[in-house]
Amino acid sequence: MKTKKKILECSICGTHNYKTTVSQQHTARLTLKKYCPKCQKHTLHQETR
Ligand SMILES: [Zn+2]
Q1: Burial, 39: exposed, middle or buried (Cβ in 10 Å; 0-12, 13-18, 19+)?
Q2: 6 SS3 class
Q3: Confidence of residue 30 (pLDDT cuts 50, 70, 90)
Q4: What is the pTM of this model?
């Protein structure tokens, strides 16, 4: 199965904090609650294009 790389960025400060791979069939936009070291708290992270 083919996968593609995604970068997750903090929706508050825009820092790129996490990398993940998803199936190419996956089209929905990922949003995950993750810890942001810059904001020093858990924030919503969304994938970049
Ligand atoms: Zn942040």
Answers
A1: middle
A2: strand
A3: confident
A4: 0.81
How far, in Å, from the CA of 41 to the mean position of ligand 1?
A: 8
> For residue 40, which phi and psi values (nearest 5 degrees)?
55, 40
Residue 32 Cα to ligand 1 midpoint, Å, equals 13
Mean pLDDT of the chain: 92
Give the distance (Å) from ligand 1 centre to CA of residue 8.
11
If you measure from the C-alpha of residue 5 to the centroid of ligand 1, how many angstroms do you get, rounded to a whole number?
20
pLDDT digits (tens, 9 = 90+) for 10-29: 999 999 999 998 888 867 88
Question: What span, in angstroms and rounded, lies between the C-alpha atoms of 38 and 49?
Answer: 22
